[in-house]
Amino acid sequence: MNNFIFENSTKVFFGKGCVKEYLSCWAGKFGERVLLAYGGCSIKKNGIYEEVTSILEKAGKTVIEFSGIMANPTYEKVLEGAKIARENEVDWILGIGGGSVMDCCKAVSLAAISKKDIWKEYWAKPGIIDFEPLPLGVIVTVAGTGSECNGGAVITNEGLKVKTGRDYPKCNPKFALMDPEYTYTVPVRQMVSGSFDILSHIMETYFSEPDVSNVSDDISEALMRNVIQNLRVAIKNPEDYTARSNLMWDATMAENRVIKLGKKCDFECHQMEHQIGAFTNCNHGEGLAVLHPVYYRQIYKYGLKKFVRFAENVWQIRRGDMTDEALAEAGVNALADFIREIGLPTSLKELGVTEDIDLREIADSCNLSVGSYKKMTHEEILEIFRECI
Asked: What pTM was estimated for this model as a whole?
């Protein structure tokens, strides 16, 4: 394995009733004024909002609300949250939702304290955080990004048409409350796209060097099998607690930095989808589902041994008389078949991306991953986009 340094400072409380049991205790560790951040009105319809605000009020907290966080949080929304936090002199932030809410809250925790332009200092380039951001706690209601156990935040700068993410350990939530029952009311389509995002995070790490035997790859194979198995169950019964709890923890394990240890990581597909999202605001998980099979057909010969492992160990495909290339391709085909099985789109056109959109401009704006088995060119990315239309 490659050298690494590991740190994860987030304390996780997982399971039924964990919000009722632990939120008041953790609320007492921070100041009186809390910025309660969330997306739309779903948490008010399903009772989560009432439950959380009641706990906070009983703990003597003053609640200042920051709502309307969108699926692809923008830099403008971050600045709005930071302004509310400063004007109300909040002491800490509590985010309720999925990855978009958590990512936005991390950026707000920086922007509320820093006097710098945080886009220029921390997103346009890697920065050094030499101050303490506002403390952040999260209550997870959607399994997908794994943002609850890292400092990563993906933000869209609409003016620049750039969507990018950074992972700063100082932005790790102080605590994460994860009750799988809170995910029951998530629409099936959103659950499926979020679950594919989980699978994508694992694949983007798995399909990279080193290729010799290593702990990270072995864990990743188990996680991928678990996502596939439990997503199939959850689609049939969205309130299957075993399936939903497994998917929730799969998401965390995919992005709490454990499987990335000693790995180069690829994430070229994420770079491509981020830029499509920056130009079109399409659904992240659905965009990844469209791109992954096409991208992997472009690179599998350059990482042949790993793609053979993927076919055999994840999809349980028997070699028979297949060559390595045929077996590797069969694994990619199995992934494509799974995407169709779970009802995700298979073309960018289904996401509203048409040939009228300047695909070359989007392709040219994509970062090129140094961890990919085959370092792409912008021309090759354009070819992938065109094939995906």
From this structure: 0.95
